[in-house]
Every structure is written in structure tokens, then in C-alpha cells.
Amino acid sequence: MLFACGLGLTLPALADTWLIRDARVFDGAQMHAKRSVLVKDDKIADADFHGAVPAGAHVVDGAGRTLLPGLIDAHVHAYNHLELPLMFGVTTQIDMFTAVETMQAMSAKMRANANHGQADLYSAGTLATAPEGHGTEYGVSIPTLTRPEEAQAFVDARIAEGSYFIKIVMESGWPGHPMKTLDLPTVKALIAAAHARGKLAVVHISKLADARAALEAGADGLAHLFNARDMSGEEVAAFVQLAQQKHAFIIPTLSVLESVAGLREEDVMADAGLAALLTKEQMVPLKSPYGAQPNPALMAAPRQLVAALGKAGVPVLAGTDAGNAGTQHGVSLLHEVRSLVEAGLTPQQALAAATSAPARAFKLADRGRIAKGYKADLLLVQGDAGSDIGALHHIVEVWKDGDAASPLRKAQQDKVAQELAPRTQAPMALPDGGRISQFTADKLASPVGMGWVPSTDQFAGGKSTVELKVREAGAVVVSAKVVPGFAYPWAGLAFMPGAQIMQPADLRGAKVLRFRVKGDGRRYNVAVLSSGLTIPVNQGFETSDEWKEVALPFDRFNGIDFGAVTMIAFNAGPAVGDYQFQIADVRLVNE
């Protein structure tokens, strides 16, 4: 379903002849002060064109502008918003873990040369992890392994599914959240198995010791650096020397490390031109980093390493880990490139990290450069990106396979503008006292909207179940069984404020959601959806064996449009298990 939603805006193959004239050109390796580039159909016909304008060519003035290869995000998780990267000049994504069906569908489109309206995708498919290890926590069953003897069969199965490379997880968790992980012999066996089939082996790490162990084991690249305070000069030098000796590439993913450190991508969020391409739903992750409080000291070590790796010539690839909190597809790569410069790379090194370096590392021979015969995946920006990395924010045009993406960008801008248009209607009239729950033995009613319904992940293919039963006057018992089968499984009780299911209602007449609850001592979530969102915004609450009142101000639900609320749900999950709680006296009030 999410994949199909991502295909909503696509372009037919309408490639033509383009001449981008007299631009500053970064060819993936060096900057040329003034060049003209000729594109015919879906290929670069001449990277240094001289002569008369070809008949029928579309001429684009490049004066005062920089032409770049289409950007490559070297670390994403492509499960939604597949249309979004192209809006920001990202024409290729390297995916580190997504649904096999999504990977296969995208690969089929690319083979048919029918992917002109979206970024291309090269995916690892299912990652290699231990039972109950990182990657298994999303409620979807995936194959795992525990012993070196299983490695070759595991790798062969991934290749049969269509994996372009093999992603391996070394992740023991963090304080208060331990995780099971593959042992080093199994990691070594997986790397050897990938190499035996001519595939790259990329290893996820989050600690220095695991990073060193993965490189010693022969990993082709690391999928992250790690959060830590200052490293000693000896530690930095030893790590860089090891990466050099092993001819490995490093994808720092500063964007997601900043999210863990509680830092937001303020540069892109505050840019009106970029924000005009992001719906409210797409803005939500950028507003919600993993870290509850800013702790910039945690970025000291990764920034030290980026500077040292760049100075030593170790391939550094720009990757965002988009799909995680604090990031968003496409736009976060513009932030990542800026972060690489702030960490110590030169602007041209950072541009290479987002173009030619990932193409070379992942053996993508037809992209990442502006050269004759290469794919016509191009990005034109206003200004000199070779001296001011902020020029990437000022996009003039994007070409994917020789097609201009401006119609897609305009459609996205119109969609966002319509979503943000001011409302003229008055908010919905709420009942006296704001109570929206009227629970009786024969009906879960409400004086407004459609009322109350069971809420489970089954509509999205999940398998969780819920039973609702009134036990006390005005209270309903919610007995939920949350089971694997969906990425974020849930079950609970939902209020539909509109006259029909998922019809929006204007709840701006209230500012706080209040309710009474008691239960089994577990943690639950209030999930709110509004028009245009496919993923709810959640706020947690605790239960105990005594009744207590919970008050959740609307302003805690970042990204929700309370003028167009489609659902308010009280859910168990995503941790699997049996849950039970009681809820009563649900109100929408002003204080």
C-alpha cells in the first residue's frame, strides 16, 4: 500500500534534447568554471559542448549557476514517500533495508526504463541480523541467522530475491536497551559469502569496537559512524589507517546521528523554498529527532572522524538514513552534505560524496558523473556550489533520465500550498463539557462525529486483534492482542470525529485531550491522524491499577492539523503481547 502511494506522481518517458549552456560544471571530480552540456534522450551526449544549438533543443541558461550530477543518497530506508527524493535533486538512493516487494517492483521499473519520475533504488532488501536483533523490531517477520554455517545460504537467498548488496548488522543496543546481535564469526562468514557471489558487504555499526571489527573482517563499507564525545588522536589515526588498509568506504550518516543527539535539521526546515515541497506529514519526522534534548557533544567523534577520513582520502559517502526520526527523503541529503562540510570536508569533497563517490563504491557505472554516455541525471542550482554548499538549496531544475522534473516539483508545491491554505469555516461545535465518550452496554457512542470503533493494524495487512466491552458505567475495557504482521503493529479503540470513517473534522475549538484510564501498568499511545497524513503522531501514557486522569495538550502532537482531524486512537503496541486497559470520560477541552 505504501509503495503504491509512492507511485502517485510519475512522468512518462518524454526525454528530449537539452543544452545547459555556460554553467559552472561539477563533473563529479572537479569543478569547471564554464561549460555547456548537451543531453539527448536519457544520456549525456557531450559534457563539454561547443558549436551551434542543435535544432529543437531546449536551451537552459547556466550563467551564475552550477550543474551537478544527480545526487545519490548512500543510506536510506525506502518504504514511503518514494516520489520525494527527486524534488530535491536526489536521483538515486542506496537502500539498506526495505520490503522485498518494494525492492523487486522498483528493480522491475528500472529494468524497463520506466522509472523517469522517481529516484532509482539499489537495495539490500532484507538485512542480515540475529533473531530478536536490530531489524526484527518492526513487527514483520524476516529471516535471521545464528551460525557461520548458515551464511552462504542466507546470502544466496537474498540474491535470489534481488538484493543488490548484502547489509549486515552488528548492533548490541545501547544503555537500557540491549539487543541481540550476530557474533563476529557469523559476520565474517557473511562477508565471505557475499564476496563469493561478487556482492558488496556493508556493515551496520554503532560503536568504535564494532566498526574496527567489521573492517578487520573485510567489510567493504560501514553503514554508519557513531555518537561519542571526543576521541583521542591515537584512536582517530588508528581507525583511519585501518579504513585505508582495508580500502573501505564510510557512510557517516551525520543526519541520523544528529537526530540521536537531539539536533534538528534547522537549515532545511527554515528554508521556505524547501519547506514548500514538504507536506505536513513529511515535515513531522524533521521536527521529531530521536534525542529528547539537544546534546551536541555527542557529535564530536563523528565529526573528528569525517575530517580525518577526508584528509586521508578514505571514500566518504553522503547518506542520511532517511526513513528514521529526524530525517526525510531527499531534503535530508542537502543537510547531510552541509554537515559534511561543517565537519571538515571541502565543498567539492562533499559534492563528490553525494555523486561520484557512492557511484564508484557501489559500482554504479552509469551515474555520479557528468561525462559522455552517462545517465542524464542532473541537478542545476543557482550560485557556486563549489564554494558555497548552501547553493544546493536553490534548485533551478532537476533532470531524471533526461526528463525535467519541474512539472513534478510544481505539482508538489501546489499540493503543499493547498494543504496550508487558511480555513474560513468555524470549528466544529463541541458538546457541553467537551465529553466525546458515551459508553453504554449496547453502544460506544459519541454526541459528535461517527463515534467509536475498534482500531487494529488489520486494515494494513496486520494480524492484531481487539475486544471492547463495557464493564463499568461510562467505561470501556480494551483487551488487545498485538502480534507480528505489520511494521508497527497495534490494537485499540479509535474515535472518528467526522460524520463518516476517516472524514476530517475541525477540532480547533479545543486545546487539550483529557481522559481517565486504568490498566495493567503497561505503556500505551494516543495516536492522532489528520488529513494528508498516513502515519499518526503518537503521545504515550502510563496505566496503573488505579484510575487516573491524563491530559495531553494538542501542541504536543507535532505536525497534526487539528482543523482536519480524521482519527484519535488509544492503542497498545508496537511491542507484541497481550494488553488490557479501561478508558472513560474522554473530553476535548480548552484547558
Structure write-up:
Helices cover 24% and strands 27% of the residues. The protein has 15 helices and 29 strands. Helix 3 crosses helix 4 (184-196), helix 6 (233-245) crosses helix 11 (300-312) and helix 12 packs across helix 13 (347-353). Among the domains are: 2-12 and 69-125 and 200-364, Metal-dependent hydrolases (TIM Barrel, Alpha-Beta Barrel), CATH 3.20.20.140; 432-589, Sandwich (Jelly Rolls), CATH 2.60.120.430. Strands 1, 2, 3, 4, 5, 15, 16 and 17 form an 8-stranded mixed sheet that branches.
> What class do helices, strands and sheet pairing give?
alpha+beta
How much is the average pLDDT? 94
Any idea what the CATH superfamily of the domain at 2-12 and 69-125 and 200-364 is called?
Answer: Metal-dependent hydrolases
CATH fold field value of the domain at 2-12 and 69-125 and 200-364: TIM Barrel
Major pleated sheet: 8 strands, mixed
| Contiguous runs where pLDDT drops below 50 for at least 5 residues | 1-14
Q: Which second-level CATH architecture of the domain at 2-12 and 69-125 and 200-364 applies?
A: Alpha-Beta Barrel
CATH class of the domain at 2-12 and 69-125 and 200-364: Alpha Beta
Note the overall shape. Answer: globular
Number of helices: 15
Strand content: 25-35%
Q: How large, in whole angstroms, is the Cα Rg?
A: 25 Å
Beta strand count:
29
Distance between the termini: 39 Å
- Summarize the amount of helix as a percent range: 10-25%
Organism: Duganella vulcania
Protein name: Amidohydrolase family protein
InterPro entries: Amidohydro-rel, Galactose-bd-like_sf, Metal-dep_hydrolase_composite, Metal_Hydrolase, Metallo-dep_Hydrolase, NADH-UbQ_OxRdtase-assoc_prot30
GO molecular function: hydrolase activity, acting on carbon-nitrogen (but not peptide) bonds
